[in-house]
Amino acid sequence: MTGTALAQSATLRIFDTAAAAEQFVAETIAAQMRRRSNSVLGLATGNSMRGVYRQLVQLRQRGAVSFAGLTSFNLDEYCGLEPTDPSSFAAYMQRELFSAIDADPARLHLPDGAADGAARYEAMIAASGGIDLQLLGIGQNGHIGFNEPGSAAGSRTRIVDLAPRTRAVNAADFPSDTPVPSRAVTMGIATILDSRRIVLLATGAAKAQALAEALEAPINAQCPASFLQTHPDLTIACDHAAVARLQHNPEARHG
Questions:
Q1: Cβ pair 189, 147 in contact under 8 A
Q2: 76-78 β-sheet, strand order
Q3: Measured on CA atoms in the order 70, 76, 77, 79, is the torsion positive or negative?
Q4: What's residue 128's pLDDT?
Q5: Active-site annotation holds for 170
Q6: What gap in Å lies between CA 83 and CA 80, rounded to an integer?
Q7: Cβ proximity of 212 and 135 under 8 Å
Q8: Is it the case that residue 45 has pLDDT exceeding 50?
């Protein structure tokens, strides 16, 4: 593993394998829960998060961490899917994490597409005291949550249209005869940036271009992840493949 500072906004940690990056993220979350037992976490879904949640479940089973005081807010959810739909993020979270930890289900929240759902979600986050640690992945087009290219820096939780590229990538999570929903509800960029700490996990060559644009290109709405450059406490955990397109490659400096 190597580590380096990126400007003043981020710390980049590079691991030999995706599994090692996932373990680091899981241990970071567990340390947050041990430090503050009633922590508020922002949670993410996607293939890269499965390893993180698997590690957290194992830590819980070993008694190394408790989630009894946890309050959580997920980043996003598809519009039009019931929580019991296997392709929903609600179902994903139950499978991958919630059903195997000691958290209070009443404090595990996902956004919904109801008429007043976005405003209520923002109000719930505020009432919780705000998110202590926000977990993020990054989409191949630079999205965070479902904030697609063009999302404004001041955006809040809202319903969005999903980009064709996002729907194509996510099609693998749906039965072959089921289309990916065209709309979703997501935390906004400003909501994410309000988090006290952000941990971004990016692994694999497919994320390399998006990560390079997020970290090294000027901040711009066409790469929503670039807004993370403004956050004062951002950690990026990645493998070697994910940093392959960084122009100022930290591996060249750290070996």
A1: yes
A2: 76-78, 183-186, 158-161
A3: positive
A4: 98
A5: no
A6: 10
A7: no
A8: yes
* Helix-helix angle 47-61:89-96, to 10 degrees: 40
- The Cα–Cα gap between 158 and 141 comes to 19
Percent residues over pLDDT 90 in the chain: 89
Mean pLDDT of all residues in 233-241: 97
Q: Is 76 an active-site residue?
A: yes
Name, in order, each residue with C-beta under 8 angstroms of 178's C-beta and a sequence gap of 6 or more.
Answer: 87
Catalytic annotation present for 254? no
Coil, helix or strand for 180? Answer: coil
Give CA–CA dist 177/83, Å, rounded.
20
Which of 96, 148, 213, 239 is flagged as catalytic?
Answer: 148
Note the pTM of the prediction, 2 decimals.
Answer: 0.93
- Average pLDDT over all residues of the chain: 93
Amino acid (one-letter) located at 155: S
Distance CA 98, CA 53 (A): 9
Query: What gap in Å lies between CA 160 and CA 194, rounded to an integer?
Result: 20
Is the predicted pLDDT of residue 170 greater than 50, yes or no? yes
Q: State the catalytic residue, choosing from 74, 77, 96, 141.
A: 141
Assess whether 240 carries a catalytic annotation: no
Q: State the catalytic residue, choosing from 22, 74, 76, 194.
A: 76
Q: Which of 143, 170, 213, 239 is catalytic?
A: 143
Residue 197 has what DSSP assignment? Answer: E
For residues 70-92, average pLDDT: 96
Amino acid at 166: T
Confirm if 30 and 41 have CB atoms less than 8 A apart.
no
pLDDT, tens only, 187-196? 999 999 999 9
